[in-house]
Specification:
This protein has 349 residues and is of the alpha/beta class. Helix content is 33%, strand content 15%. Helix 1 runs parallel beside helix 4, helix 6 packs parallel to helix 7 and helix 9 packs parallel to helix 10. The two termini are 56 Å apart.
Length: 349
Amino acid sequence: MNRNICVKQREIGDGSPCYIIAEMSANHAGDINRAIEIIHAAKESGADCIKLQTYTPDTITIDCNNDYFQVKKGTWEGETLYQLYQKAYTPWEWQGRLKQEADKIGIDFLSTPFDRTAVDFLEELEVDFYKIASFELVDIPLIQYIAAKGKPIIMSTGMGSLGEIEEAVAAVRSQGNENICLLKCSSAYPAVSAEMNLKTIQHLKETFNVPAGLSDHSMGSIGAVAAVAMGANVIEKHFCLSRKIENPDASFSMEPQEFKSMVEDIRTVEKAIGKVSYSLSEREKSSIIFRKSIFVTQSIKKGEILTEENTRVIRPGYGLQPKYYHDILGRKAATDIERGTPLAWNMFE
């Protein structure tokens, strides 16, 4: 079994229920009251955790309009990076209040820092663990700085080569921190099913001896539910109150009822996965009588021979097991046997 991690007495990994993260990101659309409402809606929808992002436009990029800083295609085409992050960021002065709200209602609070100042800020908030985004997988100095805090880390691996993932994991472990969970991620917004490659989740678990899961930017819940069926320990999905509330992340986020349905499907899948078992369930025990067995299909007089004409293997299962059929053929009846009687050992010589 892979090494599990523990967040606030909650174990994440094989043998434990899937840990489900609702990513708020920009879905608050600049309104703290909406952010608080999102936290409550995520809790009611079955999320284990609400996740924020901790950056400002100036901590993540610079205000520059030259060609390098233009978003040229995709969901945010036409924006500069600075403009995009200005619209999307969660004000730092909100985050203490949001954490208090999460603590009050019993949902875990998680955030992604994008530079050292954000890590220092989150340390002041006394966060229990950290998220590292796919785009920061190659920021080894930042990863080391986060890892040195000694807290569990959930790290997305979108766009990462196996070598880059190895370097990032090594950066965490170089700080004496073994509490790592890796998330497979397709860093497209939205992602498409054909590019998700969910088999990679199991490979991450086996390669790095860590729990692993899926940061899912696809529409709908098929990818997430399939990932859990394939062994994912964590699912992260963007969460909004309504996709009609305009913001940079709305178009690929789940609304509360959709998220709730996904969580219910995940929990049902977990029950269905169960364990290796060949014992009968209680429901199966009541069905076992409808198996086949050997019945007398024509009335037989004492002394008559049991033949294929007067006996058959049919449903239900009250008679001798079918495997004995060739053994009973040619035997003499020890008593009169009426048609429709299940055959038993004491009925023939």
